[in-house]
């Protein structure tokens, strides 16, 4: 069983990027916490961050070939702009949970709409780095059922 965690642009800067909005936890911290939790459940968790839309699309297309069972995705800025990334997820038809560290609904109005939410199994926002762990816990429960 394999779960792919995708991080969009600027999330490589987590820890130092607007810490009042995104917290002080780094992407490496998030990955190691998710990895430890998944391992304990006998599941492989793979993380991929890119600042490039096409690379994220290529990673999603590859996920279908690699038989990835579940995706956890924070599309970051692409949440509000990318039809192409949305289309890639629809094409591979792998269930996904959308995560945002910040509460996008409490911020600028251009962040209120996400191209990913209506097709997501669920959306978590505003819980900071914990949101990824909540998404992982949910995915593990779903995968155990199937
Ligand atoms: C974000 C919210 C987006 O609006 C923003 O562009 C990001 C991060 C979040 O995790 O809160 O880069 O997805």
From TrEMBL:
UniProt family annotation: Belongs to the type-II 3-dehydroquinase family.
Pfam families named in the record: DHquinase_II
Protein name: 3-dehydroquinate dehydratase
Gene transcribed to yield this protein: aroQ
Record-listed substrate binding positions: 74, 80, 87, 101-102, 111
Listed EC numbers: 4.2.1.10
Catalytic activity: 3-dehydroquinate = 3-dehydroshikimate + H2O
Tagged with keyword Transmembrane: yes
Site (Transition state stabilizer) residue list: 17
Top-tier EC class: lyase
Subunit structure: Homododecamer.
Pathway where this protein functions: Metabolic intermediate biosynthesis; chorismate biosynthesis; chorismate from D-erythrose 4-phosphate and phosphoenolpyruvate: step 3/7
Function: Catalyzes a trans-dehydration via an enolate intermediate.
Species, as recorded: Aromatoleum tolulyticum
GO molecular function terms noted in the UniProt entry: 3-dehydroquinate dehydratase activity
A GO BP annotation: chorismate biosynthetic process
Residues in coiled coil: none
Entry keyword Transmembrane: yes
Keyword list, A-Z: Amino-acid biosynthesis, Aromatic amino acid biosynthesis, Lyase, Membrane, Transmembrane, Transmembrane helix
Segments crossing the lipid bilayer: 120-140
Active site residues according to the UniProt entry: 22, 100
